Amino acid sequence: MSDPNCVFCKIATRTIAADEVARDDRAVAFRDLNPQAPHHVLVIPTAHATHLSEFTAEQPAADLAHLFALAAKIGARLGRDGYRLVVNEGASAGQSVFHLHVHVLAGRAMQWPPG
Ligand code: 5GP
Ligand code: ZN
What we know:
The chain is of the alpha+beta class. Helices cover 27% and strands 21% of the residues. It has 3 helices and 5 strands; from the N terminus they run H-E-E-E-H-H-E-E. The protein binds guanosine-5'-monophosphate and zinc ion. Guanosine-5'-monophosphate is lined by residues 7, 18, 30, 32-34, 42, 88, 94-97.
């Protein structure tokens, strides 16, 4: 459930501090240390899973729905003109922390397609 070597597990268990914007029994949302937009929040499941694929294989679908519902709620709160949700799945897609997380980006115009 929790990996002692995982930085996001440490945030989930409050072993290390984060600027939290929401928390419940299944998920935690906190501001990214290196924001890529005026508002940049990460939404993580409390349960450790390295990837979206691992999470969907191991956890109930309702927990994934819960994660995205929370991300959407935060996006709607932070992004008056809209917001972007991103999951980087795997190192070649840009994943650098191997605990599933949804990026919520808002507060600026964004280009499509991403680089
Ligand atoms: P990824 O590249 O894996 O999709 O995104 C990982 C994100 O986590 C990056 O945007 C990075 O800035 C953020 N991050 C990494 N370590 C920490 C940390 O200890 N605290 C917070 N708040 N964000 C972190
Ligand atoms: Zn973890």
